[in-house]
């Protein structure tokens, strides 16, 4: 029963939402089938675990339908209907959050029903709401403003108003703002994906878009400026002046922009910095750390109620590599409850492993890594990199050699990684092996040759650690 679709849906709700959902199903406006209310009332007795011994199909059939032969089919049908009501509930709660969009729908309804006086009165009140929502701007803000301005324009057109005060310019201005921001945002996302995974995306009209923005002033629409600056940064990996220009604009225009937009923009900057790190430019590690501290200070790391696990992990890794050990440890314990419940233990184990490695407690690192269960190729790779470094520090060459062989095989077969990333991790394996063997040869000429090669190498991860190990020989 626990694997039933509707039970899975219930498990996604918290206690407050369960109560709301019961009220929703009990409302005759949404549901007139009283048997569904009875079934839901019975089911939530088993919330939130749904693991009790009595929570079986057989027990449900006996309790709710007695010995009816048709009980199983009735249960199946009712669970299906509850699942549909659950979907309507999700739409309803999402709908409640869309304040400006709701106002547009109301204006549109007034327009359709020829309630002109109410339309005009509501239009004036909406201006106050728009001013209030301008403190948290995102693309949808401009989209909803476009819809509302369009409603106003249609109102005056249908009444054949011929004065010179048409709001058509405002309609077009908000439509352009929405389009430009979303176009820039998805173009940035496409460039990031091309760097992370082997996915080629044709970016149509990109050059025309850049040319157009260069000729315009968007001081009144800073979100366009920020996404445009990020686009330039991701397009041109060589001009590092663009990075500092991006940060200057971010700190200048961050007021009044939604936290979700700021988080996405910062994530784009992180991807740029990570590419620089993989090119061997280790100074960007401090840049990443500073941006994370900025995000924490502005409280923009949370996506909903939780910190995305990759950000949580990367903060600990970055702080540890910069020897900010105490800061990293405080962060792990202060923010671990901000991880999604089903990820908290796993991601915390990995981060404590990184922390133990930074403290040179390598056996403790192994203990934490044994508890870590990777769920995607990114987690797999991070796990293998840390494990490789740990075996090296412990002088466990047999384990190290076997790991490097399996890791290299995985990289060669992976279709998800870009050629750049494949080369970066393969070079890490090659030079880890080479440096380990140099420990027992100790020829200055070979060491100096390897040092020179590493200095010149751009496609390699963990270059700072490799250089440190080489210099220890």
Give the key terms.
single chain; mainly alpha; 23 helices; flat
What features would you describe in this structure?
- The protein is an all-alpha fold and 473 residues long.
- Among the domains are: 5-97, no CATH class; 99-178, no CATH class.
- Helices cover 74% and strands 0% of the residues.
- Helix 6 (99-112) packs parallel to helix 8, helix 7 (116-133) packs antiparallel against helix 8 and helix 21 runs parallel beside helix 23.
- The longest helix is centred in the middle third of the chain and has 29 residues, at 168-196.
Q: How is this fold's topology laid out?
A:
Elements: H1 5-11, H2 15-26, H3 34-43, H4 57-65, H5 71-97, H6 99-112, H7 116-133, H8 139-158, H9 168-196, H10 206-214, H11 222-235, H12 241-253, H13 259-278, H14 284-297, H15 309-321, H16 325-335, H17 341-358, H18 362-371, H19 377-393, H20 397-413, H21 419-441, H22 444-456, H23 463-472
Please summarize what this structure is:
Helices cover 74% and strands 0% of the residues.
Strand content: under 5%
Global shape: flat
Main beta sheet: strand number and arrangement?
none
- End-to-end separation in angstroms reads 60 Å
Please give the number of β-strands: 0
Poorly predicted residue ranges: none
Mean pLDDT: 90
- Into which percent range does the helicity of residues fall? over 70%
Oligomer: single chain
By DSSP (H or I, 4+ residues per run), the number of helices equals 23
SSE succession? HHHHHHHHHHHHHHHHHHHHHHH
